[in-house]
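help with this.
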Amino acid sequence: MEFAEVVRRRRMVRNYDPDRPVPPEVVDRLLDHAVRAPSAGFSQGWGFLVLSDAPDRDRFWAAATPARAGRGRWLDGMRRAPLIVVPHANRSAYLDRYAEPDKGWADRDENRWPVPYWYVDTGFAALLMLLTAVDEGLGACFFGIPPERLSSYREAFGVPEEFVPIGAITIGYRAPDHRSPSLDRGRRPVEQVVHRGQWS
């Protein structure tokens, strides 16, 4: 598939065919592409939890779903995904890397960073997985883990404190899905968001 077509076809998919697992070689490609994301200082401060077995996915939903969420169309469709990947960011990897002699910020001061690149770079990796999913004929959806469920998520999977999940990605073959009502807002025209030469 041409890259422009991959970008145009990318959307968040919220319903999957539970009887079609993602082939292991495709899972490997998703992860291989993720680790090719750019990272400041080539810090590569990310970690990916891959959940492809049904008991592990059930444990994820039990740990990460708020009790008040119950079950509904969104959750029912998402739970059908045969693959969940949770990308994590490791701030310490960046602070350590930039304290090395070729960078020279020996104090590890987080305030030197204009934005938290550990989250930005892990987001880049997540986007590469989303695009790879489209290229492989799959659907995917990036979503957040509610803050009040982070402790139960960490406990369920033994995630070290220095790794912060930036969200989770469901991946699988698409099933009939409903259109998000948010799309009714329409895509903002390029002229509204691009500023050439100066802002105004």
Notes: DSSP finds eight helices and five strands in the chain.
